[in-house]
TrEMBL record:
Source species: Lawsonibacter faecis
Record's keyword terms, sorted: Cell membrane, Lipoprotein, Membrane, Signal
Domain ABC transporter substrate-binding protein PnrA-like, chain residue ranges per copy: 38-323
Similarity comment text for this entry: Belongs to the BMP lipoprotein family.
GO CC annotation terms, alphabetical: plasma membrane
InterPro entries per the UniProt record, alphabetical: BMP_lipoprotein, Peripla_BP_I, PnrA-like
Presence of keyword Transmembrane helix: no
PANTHER family: ABC TRANSPORTER GUANOSINE-BINDING PROTEIN NUPN, TRANSCRIPTIONAL ACTIVATOR PROTEIN MED
Lineage: Bacteria, Bacillati, Bacillota, Clostridia, Eubacteriales
Presence of the UniProt keyword Glycoprotein in the record: no
Protein name: BMP family ABC transporter substrate-binding protein
Signal sequence extent: 1-22
Length: 339
């Protein structure tokens, strides 16, 4: 009787230990960290090098604080030689979702994704070749055409000379999408408007931006747009010097042009990346396609500065265009009318 009881007790204790171990073990898809979903964003540049990246970093930290079920990490990979090793290290560490940035990291993303088919990879504006054949990579990006369309509406409503110009950083896809939206927006409210496009071929040269801005003003453009990063600061300086209106991208330029700014097409990278994470976690992950996050998702907008000289009529036109875009009543081509 005593031997039977001892065997029963040992069996019961063994079963209890197995149940305890099973309960403490990692769950499938959890990255080996209990119930937490592990997410990594890999940046090709240092966080302190760009305001948008600093905003993204802080936004992800705030989001994780409100979502303890997630573990979110931002990793810097500032050298080409670091791209694949750092992405691969995250995959080896059991991350569930890995997001890479821009076409710089496209090759590294594809290489690692092939070796880790169960991990969900996201590529922010990666221009992944043959994306439709990638089984675990989803590309995503901001809608540049939507906010540029609104900027064009503002310019089309406010011009007095019926001629406007824009300084683009370079003759590349993302900038040309901006130019396309800008041109279509202005023509939606002012069909006879004339616009001039110039490319700086640099995003970091304010002197070049000012030179081009002054040249546009010399061609009777009374409104200048600047989609050129740091080069755009120079275009804004030209507008301020000649008392011309200015339309900005990414940030506001009130400190340069004061109340001459008609508004800025601003982007919220943190909201875009968070939306992607929520889609990936919530069962809306769609590998092999490119997803665009725009006005409707709150990932971008066109903002007026307080005290702006934009007329009430122009503001109303912008608001009507915003509503039409979010309701799907406007189709915007990503191809410029001209360059």
């Amino acid at each position: 009787m005593k031997k039977q009881f001892t065997r029963f007790l040992c069996a019961a204790l063994g079963a209890a230990m197995l149940l305890a171990l099973a309960g403490c073990g990692p769950k499938e898809g959890s990255g080996g960290d209990g119930d937490r979903t592990k997410v990594a964003f890999v940046s090709y540049m240092a966080v302190d090098q760009a305001e948008w990246l600093q905003n993204l970093d802080q936004g992800l930290k705030d989001y994780q604080s409100a979502h303890p079920e997630l573990e979110i990490k931002l990793v810097e990979a500032t050298q080409t030689s670091e791209y694949e090793p750092k992405v691969r290290a995250l995959a080896d560490a059991g991350y569930d979702i890995i997001i890479t940035s821009y076409d710089n990291m496209a090759a590294a993303t594809v290489a690692v994704a092939k070796d880790f088919p169960d991990i969900k990879f996201g590529s922010m504006d990666g221009a992944i070749p043959d994306l439709e054949n990638c089984k675990n990579i989803q590309e995503f990006g901001l809608s540049r055409t939507e906010t540029a369309y609104l900027a064009g509406v503002a310019a089309g409503m406010m011009t007095q000379t019926n001629k406007v110009g824009i300084v683009g950083g370079s003759d590349v896809g993302p900038i040309n999408e901006i130019i396309a939206g800008w041109q279509q927006g202005m023509r939606s409210v002012n069909p006879d408007i004339e616009d001039v496009v110039v490319y700086a071929n640099t995003f970091t040269d304010p002197t070049k931006g000012k030179e081009l801005g002054l040249a546009l003003i010399g061609k009777d453009c009374d409104i200048i747009g600047g989609a050129a990063g740091g080069t755009g600061v120079g275009a804004a300086q030209a507008a301020a010097e000649k008392s011309s209106y200015y339309v900005g991208w990414d940030v506001h330029y009130g400190d340069v042009v004061g109340d001459l700014e008609l508004g800025s097409a601003v982007n919220f990278f943190d909201k875009m990346v968070i939306q992607f994470i929520e889609d990936a976690v919530g069962g809306k992950y769609t590998p092999g396609v490119r997803t665009i996050y725009g006005l409707k998702e709150g990932a971008c907008d066109f903002e007026f500065l307080e005290g702006s000289k934009v007329s009430d009529e122009a503001k109303a036109a912008v608001e009507e265009a915003r509503k039409a875009i979010t309701e799907g009543r406007v189709e915007i081509s990503s191809e410029p009318i001209h360059k």
